[in-house]
Design goal:
By secondary structure, the chain is mainly beta. Helices cover about 10% and strands about 30% of the residues. The two termini are about 25 Å apart.
């Protein structure tokens, strides 16, 4: 059975990237960015950065909010704080003349911020910078980036922003890292154990909301927010096809006069045709999301998809009200880009369905 998308639409819901640990060596002061090799983090994503020692950002115009990460002598790899502002050269006295400055920087002087949420921009060198709005992050303007400082925060976790319970789980992992030191060959570590963080109860209380009993939303969806994971409309599509099949398996016994068969698994695949463009949307995605999904081979390569044929129709005559769409999970298997003189750059991609395929219909 082939379902053609004339007049229909497709909604996608991405997997969240795995939380990733970064070291101070990843920071690039010249571009106010930090190197993130995990390819599942994309421009426009809402992320939370967490470090129990403090973040390399200045939230109060009094220095980076990482009191234990400052230098104590001139020429250090780390930034000197206001308590050592009397040292500007190797020949300056190590101790202040007045004796009123603190020897070590304290949170009373610079503050302490262990977690913050931003939108990110990823450049062509895999450097991630932080912004306060999604629009600014997608544009990647260097003038509105959150400033980063060279302080020793030891280790920093970057993760997709989600519910409060999920952020608490990230904070718990940040504490468990402890005195973590990165090797020369590997300076990013994926926190696979984040999925093992369990809610602290014996018997969950009954409730009606999805996943409410467990006190966390599914952690494999990006941009979960307070209301659950977000479905985004796939834009710039010129057409799509969804092919579903359930082959028969012959179960005829030897000696039977007539054949017998049962249905095998239901599987499917299809294609999407689109025009190649980069645009800024709030509830929509541009076609680059399809092109990037192909490049992922592990976490983040799957995406939930809804193939809509009827959207919130009002009953008139014999027509029934409500919606009609298929819902499943897909893997992008191939992408082809076509360029011809005098025409727009167009693309086509193939996908395969994974897991359950459900036909949803009705008004609720």
């Amino acid at each position: 059975m082939a379902v053609l998308g004339t007049g229909g639409k497709i909604l996608l819901r991405r997997e969240a990237p795995e939380p990733t640990v970064l070291s101070p060596a990843n920071i690039n002061l010249g571009s106010n960015s930090i190197l993130v090799r995990n390819p599942a983090f994309w421009s426009g994503d809402n992320v939370t950065i967490t470090s129990v020692n403090g973040l390399p950002i200045d939230s109060g115009s009094d220095g980076p909010d990482c009191p234990d990460g400052y230098a104590v002598y001139y020429g250090s790899d780390w930034e000197l704080g206001s308590n050592r502002d009397h040292i500007t050269a190797d020949t300056d006295d190590f101790y202040s003349v007045t004796g009123t400055d603190q020897f070590y920087m304290r949170s009373d002087e610079c503050g302490l911020t262990t977690s913050a949420t931003y939108y990110i921009y990823r450049d062509k060198l895999d450097r991630v910078s932080f912004y306060t709005t999604r629009s600014a992050a997608l544009n990647g303007d260097t003038g509105t980036r959150v400033s980063l400082s060279r302080v020793d925060f030891r280790s920093l976790i970057i993760a997709a922003s989600g519910t409060t319970a999920y952020q608490n789980a990230i904070a718990d992992c940040a504490t468990d890292i402890g005195e973590y030191y990165f090797s020369d060959g590997q300076d990013e570590v994926t926190l696979d154990s984040i999925c093992d963080f369990a809610p602290e109860y014996t018997s969950p209380a009954a409730d009606t909301a999805e996943y409410y009993n467990a006190n966390f939303t599914p952690r494999y969806y990006i941009n979960a927010g307070g209301s659950g994971s977000i479905w985004l409309v796939q834009c710039e599509l010129s057409g799509w096809t969804l092919n579903l099949s359930s082959p028969e398996v012959d179960t005829t016994s030897i000696g039977e006069k007539y054949g017998d068969a049962i249905k095998a698994i239901v599987s499917g695949g299809g294609t999407m045709d689109f025009s190649v463009e980069r645009k800024s949307y709030t509830a929509n995605e541009d076609p680059t999301v399809l092109m990037r999904l192909l490049m992922l081979t592990e976490k983040g390569c799957r995406t939930d998809a809804q193939f809509w044929m009827i959207d919130d129709r009002t009953a008139t005559g014999d027509l029934l009200p409500g919606d009609l769409y298929y819902e499943t999970e897909i893997l992008i298997t191939s992408v082809a880009i076509n360029t011809r003189a005098g025409e727009i750059i167009a693309g086509s991609m193939n996908f395969a369905t994974v897991g359950d395929i459900a036909l949803k219909m009705g008004t609720n």
